Amino acid sequence: MKVVLDITRLLRRSSQATPTGIDRVELAYARHLLGSRQYKDQAAFVGRVRASTWYLDAETVAGFIEALARRWKQSEGRITRRELGNVEGFLRLAPGTLSELEPPAPPRSALPDALPPLQRLFSPVNLLPRLLRRRNSHGAVYLNVSHEGLNSIAGVRSMVRGHGLKPMYLVHDLIPLTHPEYVRPGDAEKHETRMRTVLNSAEAVICNSQHTRSQLTAFAGRSDLVMPPSVVSPLGIEDEFDEEEPAMPEIHPFFLTVGTIEPRKNHLVLLHAWRVLVEKLGARAPKLIIVGRRGWENENVIDIIERCRNLSDHVLECNRLPDGQLRRLMKQSRGVLFPSFAEGYGLPLFEAMALRVPVICSDLQAFRDIAGAAPCYLDPIDGLGWARAIEDYAHPDSQARAAQLRQLAQIRMPRWADHFSIVDRIIDVVADSPAIPAPSSPWRPSASFERSKALIAAGERSEAGRSLAFVAARPQSSTR
């Protein structure tokens, strides 16, 4: 058994109607391991429920994963005709322009049910004897890509020690540590524990950007811990972003912003910029569609959206859109806007770029790592700068927008196949490294456990097994 994927998050989130970004990542990993010839009969899955680690039958996991993927895909399409009609009316499109392209949403009773395969997963038939599973899994790579269950280093230590696993983690971001003001109270402390667990136990770490790796390295330094071997592998864009989208008739210029309405996403700067544009241009001002659910501490943003009369004809809040409709609106927009104060990755930005749609975004290192020089970068608090750039991009003869389009034509954004081509090689390296002592012998922590600068030199483990240097990803986007 070569690799064991922790799907605890998917098990916990299986009752939800739609997935989060991290849900999508764990789902992509599960489908990759199940569908790749490289892992045939060598991939296993675990779920940690009530402080116990359960090894799950791979064939039954496959049924659960596909049922969950279908459920989430069909649930995303459950947008009502009224909601699509609101978008059509806002953009002054003929009724049915959007809704006629959307297949009828299935009734809730017809959605794939994830509960039966979930019940089969935990039936006595599929939960093979624990001793057999422990013997088969000894020395396997334990892969956690969701930060799930990392709040307790003692729990991870017990699992690694008892099952002879080699931990490997995907780190998404360190925002709760670098920007605690943008997360809920207590989240910073929880995330610090997660990152300490990663640093204290990892045989290798995957980071989604060079920025994330730099932040994790800095945190390790502040905590007097050693950074494990690590590589950068950008997350992938879905294959649907290569498909052509149906054209819409010529319409009033509009922009999109995509993201949960919360302080970190900085919708406020856009609303103030739009107030300036409406006061200057009146009815000729471009329109803005805000795509995203309402998060927390967003009262000032919601007040402006709901109560500012000057913006009522120019700003529309849309809770969510089916993926196909979102891609179509992106393609027809004058640009997609991302004024965030902080990001760990920013997948919607890269999805827009994959569609060759101009982007105006905050000048964040996380964006520059992948997007390079193509986007229009602005300071997130430069409201007048945002207003000027939006007005320019809204004009049909915008030279700045045309220049970005020329750059986008030469850029290829990472796909999931690119991500996994790097990850698969890392798994090989970690799997071939010296094995952890078997549970039957006196256990000693692996070299990566409880490492500190006082005990282990920073480069001591870099020569263990094969070097990870050859699988390091280029963090920026590539040209064709």
Topology:
Blueprint: E1 3-6, H1 8-13, H2 21-35, E2 43-49, E3 52-56, H3 58-76, H4 81-90, H5 115-121, H6 130-137, E4 141-144, H7 153-163, E5 166-171, H8 175-178, H9 187-201, E6 204-207, H10 210-222, E7 230-232, E8 254-258, H11 267-281, E9 287-291, H12 299-307, E10 315-318, H13 323-332, E11 336-338, H14 347-354, E12 359-362, H15 365-371, E13 376-378, H16 383-394, H17 399-408, E14 411-412, H18 416-431, E15 478-479
Parallel strand pairs: 1-2, 1-4, 4-5, 5-6, 6-7, 8-9, 8-11, 9-10, 11-12, 12-13
Antiparallel strand pairs: 2-3, 14-15
Helix pairs in contact: 2-3, 3-5, 11-16
Question: Which terms would index this structure?
Answer:
single chain, 480 residues, alpha/beta, Rossmann fold, seven-stranded mixed beta sheet, six-stranded parallel beta sheet, 41% helix, disordered C terminus
Query: What is the CA–CA distance across the termini?
Result: 37 Å
What share of the residues lie within helices?
A: 40-55%
What is the arithmetic mean of pLDDT? 83
How does the major sheet shape up? 7 strands, mixed
Shape: globular
- For the record, the count of structural domains works out to 2
Sheet with most strands: strand arrangement: 3-2-1-4-5-6-7
Q: Architecture of the largest domain, according to CATH?
A: 3-Layer(aba) Sandwich
Strand content: 5-15%
> In CATH, what is the class of the largest domain?
Alpha Beta
- Using the coordinates shown, work out and report the CATH topology of the largest domain: Rossmann fold
SS elements, strand count: 15
